[in-house]
């Protein structure tokens, strides 16, 4: 398999020029402002700035052209070769065996020209920086290169239709996903930061205005505060929806042979490839706002290689929980089990409730002491005790939602922190299993089971706390290597 | 689950841990002494009350240095079976970890300055999910364990 050296799409010139303009801008901004501050603004400085901008633009365009001319790529001799560099020549060779994924991203400028950026990642490459990035290729060239790279790795399953679409996220589901994303917390903190800025702005206005506004609101200050809280909440919520829309518009999951393809994004179109062989575990995440409606999202944990960290990717952002199994059977059959789970023994309930209420109980005396000393108000510690009941309910929920199963050589565990999460991992993906017991658990004949898969920096760990000790040991035994 | 793993760490580990724990808890002792000094010299409380922070720190150090190393050693066990490495450890939370040999990517031995003094070494083996350790084996045993894990891992790969 070999091919002639090829150039990128000419749009690469523009992209490169924009990049160098942006770079020189950031270098000029501070001296420029200093210059303006010292000299003041006059007609002459305006002309100077205009001239400077013109020179920078022309140079950038020239540089863009030269670097486009200098950049070629080809697939030859079982390797991908990328030549670059106007002044200093640089040639990178990536053996095709080492290519881990070929992803495409489409920024706004790339969309204008109908081109894509192609990123080639290798096993053991950097996490943030792709190993080779081609800033502009037209669709046909990208597809051709993808096939050339992919073709040598595996016998291509030649289907004229291309990847089969498994599921697409509709507009309605997209909005629901945003509304129930639980990103409100993130958005809230953004709003809080923004309001801090506004506070500083507030100092700018005359104190008088603020006082009058305050006096007008004072009779209804509680109403005002409530209104403010509601307004901030709604705003954060809209922000969360907007974030989801940006990231997940047009989310499409498709599969061809042993590869999954994910396309998504409103302004920046992203396309990612996940080799099925790298998937270590699948998680079905039912967020607090989603579970009541029977909705969930699907995530996959894929392995890194060598020192490279693995990644956790959204396989599908929102679907009815009941349909998770069918989608998994189509997308990653190895993970297509959502069985009935074994519950924990009733003895475990006491330990779950104990664990969730102890922090509250311990905090109460401390709060009492502090509040009576500092605030001269003893009741805070007692008021805090009102939290014991919700804490106990939380413990009960965690108990009820915890469960495990060993089915068809796969481990399935479910647990709740906030969201209820079901993790599915096949036996051959487990890197280690552990049975852990503290003295209390030993007395109650309970144990904690934990298994690790290769994912992320520290490895994804899944487990069940307080299952029957015998079950934990049997699990560890069954999930071990087979002779 | 199989019976608990057969092998123990080298008995010299207890002494080594005592020393490193003693070094590690020095700041605690210093903190206690400083607390007592403040109480006695600055706040001028009665001697028996003022000495309390130092005593508390001293008791903690003694417990930590004396008992913890021993308990830890008694619990630590390992065994290289033909298809997995079996580890048992922990004082309060006793964990039993099983790592299939087929998942092990590479094995190292490691020796810190204090370990070299005692002729001890640590075996570290890595899976795709991270490292696992068998600490404080006598250096020749550690080399043996390392080679054995490497050997068995290779056999597993050929299957």
Can you characterise this structure?
The complex is a heterodimer of chains A (483) and B (159). Chain A is an alpha+beta fold and 483 residues long. Among the domains of chain A are: 6-153, PH-domain like; 347-398, no CATH class. Chain A has 14 helices and 20 strands. Chain A is flat and about 80 Å long. By secondary structure, chain B is of the alpha+beta class. Chain B contains 5 helices and 7 strands, in the order E-H-H-H-E-E-E-E-H-E-E-H. A 4-stranded antiparallel sheet of chain B has the order 1-2-3-4. A 3-stranded antiparallel sheet of chain B has the order 5-6-7. In chain B, strand 6 and strand 7 (130-138) form a beta hairpin. The mean pLDDT of chain B is 87. The A-B interface holds A 303-304, 430-439, 452-455, 458-461, 473-474, 476-477, 480-481, 483 and B 1-2, 83-84, 90, 92-103, 127-130, 132, 156.
Put the structure in a nutshell.
The complex is a heterodimer of chains A (483) and B (159). Chain A is α+β, with helices and mostly antiparallel strands.
Give me some keywords for this one.
heterodimer; A: alpha+beta; PH-domain like; 7-stranded antiparallel beta sheet; 20 strands; about 30% strand; B: about 160 residues; alpha+beta; 4-stranded antiparallel beta sheet; 3-stranded antiparallel beta sheet
Amino- and carboxy-terminal Cα gap of chain B: 24 Å
Q: Which structural class best describes the helix and strand composition of chain A? A: alpha+beta
Q: What is the oligomer described by this structure? A: heterodimer
Principal-axes shape call of chain B: elongated
Q: Count the E strands of chain A.
A: 20
The order of strands across the largest sheet of chain B is 1-2-3-4
Largest sheet of chain B: 4 strands, antiparallel
pLDDT averaged over residues of chain B: 87
Low-confidence stretches of chain A: 124-129, 152-160
Number of helices of chain A: 14
Radius of gyration of chain A: 29 Å
Give me the Rg of chain B, rounded.
Answer: 21 Å
Main pleated sheet of chain A: 7 strands, antiparallel
Shape-level CATH architecture of the domain at 6-153 in chain A: Roll
Please give the alpha-carbon distance between the first and last residues of chain A: 41 Å
């Amino acid at each position: 398999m070999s091919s002639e050296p090829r150039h990128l799409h000419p749009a690469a010139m523009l992209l490169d020029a924009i990049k160098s303009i942006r770079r020189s801008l950031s270098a000029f901004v501070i001296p420029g402002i200093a210059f303006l501050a010292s000299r003041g603004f006059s007609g002459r400085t305006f002309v100077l700035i205009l001239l400077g901008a013109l020179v920078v633009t022309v140079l950038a365009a020239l540089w863009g052209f030269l670097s486009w001319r200098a950049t070629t790529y080809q697939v030859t001799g079982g390797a991908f070769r990328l030549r670059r560099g106007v002044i200093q020549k640089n040639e990178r060779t990536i053996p095709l065996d080492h290519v881990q994924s070929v992803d495409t991203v489409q920024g706004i400028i790339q969309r204008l020209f109908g081109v894509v950026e192609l990123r080639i990642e290798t096993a053991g490459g950097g996490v943030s920086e792709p190993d080779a990035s081609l800033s502009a290729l037209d669709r046909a060239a990208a597809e051709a290169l993808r096939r050339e790279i992919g073709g040598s790795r595996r016998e291509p399953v030649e289907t004229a239709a291309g990847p089969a679409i498994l599921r697409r996220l509709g507009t309605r589901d997209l909005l629901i996903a945003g509304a129930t994303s639980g990103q409100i917390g993130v958005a809230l903190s953004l709003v809080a930061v923004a309001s801090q800025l506004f506070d500083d702005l507030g100092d700018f206005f005359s104190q008088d205005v603020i006082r009058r506004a305050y006096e007008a609101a004072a009779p209804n200050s509680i109403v005002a505060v409530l209104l403010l809280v509601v307004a901030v909440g709604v705003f954060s919520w809209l922000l969360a929806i907007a974030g989801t829309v940006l990231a997940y518009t047009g989310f499409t999951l498709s599969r061809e042979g042993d590869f999954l393809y994910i396309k998504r994004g409103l302004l920046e179109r992203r396309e990612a490839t996940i080799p099925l062989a790298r998937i270590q575990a699948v998680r079905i995440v039912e967020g607090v706002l989603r579970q009541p409606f029977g909705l969930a999202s699907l995530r996959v944990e894929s392995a890194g290689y060598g020192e490279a960290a693995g990644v956790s990717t959204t396989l599908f952002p929102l679907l009815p929980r009941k349909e998770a199994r069918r989608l998994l059977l189509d997308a990653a059959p190895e993970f297509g089990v959502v069985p009935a789970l074994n519950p924990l023994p009733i003895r475990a309930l006491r330990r779950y409730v104990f664990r969730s209420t102890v922090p509250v109980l311990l905090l109460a005396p401390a709060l009492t002491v502090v509040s009576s000393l500092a605030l001269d108000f003893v009741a805070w510690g007692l008021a805090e005790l009102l939290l014991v009941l919700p804490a106990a309910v939380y413990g009960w929920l965690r108990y009820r939602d915890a469960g495990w199963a060993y089915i068809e050589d796969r481990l399935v565990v479910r647990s709740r922190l906030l969201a209820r999460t079901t993790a599915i991992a096949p036996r051959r993906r487990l890197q280690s299993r552990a049975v852990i017991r503290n003295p209390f658990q030993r007395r109650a004949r309970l144990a904690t089971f934990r298994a690790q898969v290769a994912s992320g920096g520290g490895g994804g760990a899944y487990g069940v706390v307080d299952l029957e000790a015998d079950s934990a040991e049997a699990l560890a035994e069954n999930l071990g290597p087979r002779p | 689950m199989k019976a608990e793993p057969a092998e123990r760490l080298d008995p010299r580990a207890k002494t080594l841990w005592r020393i490193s724990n003693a070094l590690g808890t020095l700041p605690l002792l210093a903190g206690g002494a400083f607390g007592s000094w403040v109480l006695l010299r600055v706040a001028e409380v009665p001697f028996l009350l003022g000495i309390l922070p130092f005593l508390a720190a001293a008791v903690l150090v003694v417990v930590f240095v004396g008992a913890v190393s021993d308990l830890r050693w008694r619990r630590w066990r390992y065994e290289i079976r033909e298809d997995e490495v079996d580890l048992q450890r922990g004082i309060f939370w006793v964990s039993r970890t099983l790592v299939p040999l087929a998942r092990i990517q590479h094995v190292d031995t490691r020796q810190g300055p204090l370990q070299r003094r005692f002729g001890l070494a640590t075996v570290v083996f890595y899976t795709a999910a991270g490292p696992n350790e068998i600490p404080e084996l006598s250096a020749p045993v550690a080399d043996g364990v390392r080679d054995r894990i490497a050997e068995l891992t290779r056999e597993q790969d050929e299957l």
